[in-house]
Records
---
Amino acid sequence: SKAQAWSALFSEPMSDLVKRYTSSVFFDKRLWQADIAGSLAHAEMLAAQGIISAGDHAAIERGMATITREIEAGQFDWQLDLEDVHLNIEARLTQLVGDAGKRLHTGRSRNDQVATDVRLWLRGEIDLIAGLLADVQRALVEVAAQNVDVILPGFTHLQVAQPVSFAHHLLAYVEMFARDAERMADVRRRVNVLPLGSAALAGTTYPLDRERVARTLGMDGVCQNSLDAVSDRDFAIEFAAAASLVMVHVSRLSEELIVWMSQNFAFIRIADRFTTGSSIMPQKKNPDVPELARGKTGRVVGHLMGLITLMKGQPLAYNKDNQEDKEPLFDTVDTLKDTLRIFAEMIGGQPGPQTGAKSGGISVNRQAMRAAALKGYATATDLADYLVKKGLPFRDAHETVAHAVKAASDQGVDLTELSLQQLQGFHPAIEADIFDALTLEGSLNARNTLGGTAPAQVRAQLARHQARLGA
Ligand code: ARG
């Protein structure tokens, strides 16, 4: 068997099964760019501090440039025997530039190296995710802007509650994704701190300039305790928690899209290319994309559970357990990015390659929404509020309206279909202007408090989001 970096101490080679069990190169090789960036920053500092020569530094830079080309061209020979991305790259560097390559690891351990790599990689991914969260928000804002005056029933307990603007409903999700973006930005602040220079666990005997490495790598600071630096994965757990919340929001939206697409609602359609047919039922168009997003939420939440459980029993400092942080983290990032991309496209629609006309997007059936809002006594609260304005205490008004709703539903009619005389039978203060208050538009317009569904409020929120998102 091939000699290992630490082999002098070992009297027998590692078994193939153990090799396969302990190696991580086939998944952690995706950290290669971060690994090389970290190594180059470390080498530059070693040279600046006089720990390695300028010649060695130049050789390391040359070697890393070659390795970069090899990996990009798909010609790099990743070896299971070399366990992980770090040892693979270092071994190749030494093959290419000799002793200078062997000097790179001075004052460094894979423990601080891997913690640095994961942070650098995750920082880049968080930036991409922030962009995608903005895309999804812009798509929602765009659809909302076209649907301020479209009214659908708002629900509580999935029972018709009060009419709301469809734009208002969509902007609720914009709020959620805006908070998600804030959370990601906050996680990023704690991700972007440098472990390198902590070495294996206790710091190092070489006069390293850790601040310099942090500056080179664009990090906001250095980890202040070497034991914590090599063993902390809070940042990964926090990220998984923030990602889980994004997915939960996507999942709630998915559930609504699925319900709205169902024939019993028929509120919306989504473009055909986000739906699939059935192999047996020719009439089918199934909302597979939102359904899968709802399903994949379980997967991401599972990764959060995996990561947090991974940490709970670990003594200080580094333990090999931590190698298990990568696959859940990678899959969380991949799942989240794909989901956000597809949602941005599905909601907002994309300019088509030929015509430039939008394809995709949500088409709204405003008549179906309106008809649904007119069922279920969505404006009953407005009748109560009307009576309060005539001087009734709210609790009495509530009771009076309950009687009116009971009578209307016994007759199978809406409140607006009762005659003025009938309504006055419930309370003499009711006058002809009640019919304005009981319309869907009247109900919306009346909810003109900040954050309410009145079109004036919704337009103000739209403007705020458009300015914030540069939409
Ligand atoms: N592949 C390892 C990981 O992912 C790198 C660090 C290994 N360090 C060690 N002392 N075995 O965590």
---
Amino acid sequence: TVLIVDFGSQVTQLIARRVREAGVYSEIVPFQSADEGFARLAPKAVILSGGPASTVDIGSPRAPQAIFEAGVPVLGICYGQQTMCAQLGGAVEGGHHREFGRAFVSVERQSPLFEGVWSEGERHQVWMSHGDRVTALPEGFAVIGTSPNAPFAAIADETRRYYGVQFHPEVVHTPDGARLIANFVHRIAGLKGDWTMAAYKDQAIAAIREQVGDGKVICGLSGGVDSSVAALLIHEAIGDQLTCILVDHGLMRLNEAAEVAEMFRQHYNIPLVHADASDTFLDALDGVSDPELKRKTIGKLFIDVFEAEAKKLGGADFLAQGTLYPDVIESVSFTGGPSVTIKSHHNVGGLPERMDMKLVEPLRELFKDEVRELGRELGLPDSFIGRHPFPGPGLALRCPGAVTRDRLDILRQADAIYLDEIRKAGLYDAIWQAFAVLLPVQTVGVMGDGRTYEYVCALRAVTSVDGMTADFYPFDMGFLGEAATRIINEVRGINRVVYDVTSKPPGTIEWE
Ligand code: XMP
């Protein structure tokens, strides 16, 4: 096991992911409980994450001293490097040399950390994001890499197997970072890369059994990949203690609810309740146009419906959800620390605190592509695994402004045509997610010989690896022209179509 001590970086889970990719099991513990985690897991190596704090501030977080007394290899990243240096007798300076984004590291010395990846004298691109920097090394350390703004960009105490990097090897903008992390776990810590998604599945199943005991679980099913994988996994773990609930909130796509219900009942033979709550949801959303309020309203009603359905089933102890890591990190900081809320994903920040059921979220550490791999491991068909993500609050997020039944109908038709065109063009699998958005804006047009004054429909399509960053999809204009023509001809209420060419960041994938 590799222990990852989380100091609150937005990208701590990427470290875990890189370790998983290297075929090694890891666990993340928040710094507050790192002492306990270190004792419990007896890890073969430790990685200290980055974080928003400054080691020069009084009371800033520290790594457990026990880690440095145990003789295990340690890799400190950014804040992790700084606190390691501060704790071992070096010095850190605050504030003056902020460095964000692309930088280049010159390799000063050969090291097992760089073996087979970087050689002495070379320069390599890395990603930096720091305000503080190390200014004096603890005894035993040497500089193995420098950058213009970080003279101690990479440091090593080869005898004690302590390594520190100021840059972030876990992000894709450090192109060789994954291989450096693999070097740390394989060459330096001597761990074999024999851990797989099949093993993850077994661990997840064991963890579910332990958490749930003989309690009853209900699982909200949206028809998307995440909740389906969560349901299958839980079903493997606890069988008929699980009941799935498909809440039709009236914000699904065309025919979606019926298709999902049928597939789950027939294919998987998992007990499923199809709760039609569309009136409740749409009435509650009447007049609500603030995006966060929409999310909170929907999140609260989801729980109301789950609780009502649980009661009908004679009670449930747990609510299971297919929450993924990117949902978590954008809603609340992993450690409950100071990272900012981008949006309250309904299955995370949108949940009311008064909920009686406890949460089961077996996918909370995973990224979308890992969930798909886990789905394959669980025997889900490829056609299903390849489905585009669909957010829990559904079409409400794609109807900026007030959500009304009429506008939802218009949106549903446009969306179905758009996706149909994408499938026909053979582009569905090349795209991470594609959907229509109905703007609350009417514009003037001319159809036949008459004037029209109808809504604008925006089309969105993006590519992405994990939903954390995304690029707009570069359709050719011919495709867009045809999709626009069909939508305007076939959908009453739309007379203009535009294409969204915003990446994430600065945009998000959904419009709300
Ligand atoms: P954004 O819009 O934040 O979305 O770039 C990233 C990915 O997450 C999906 N998404 C959600 N999924 N509940 C979900 O289950 C939500 O509340 C939610 N909001 C966004 C979004 O569709 C994209 O794939």
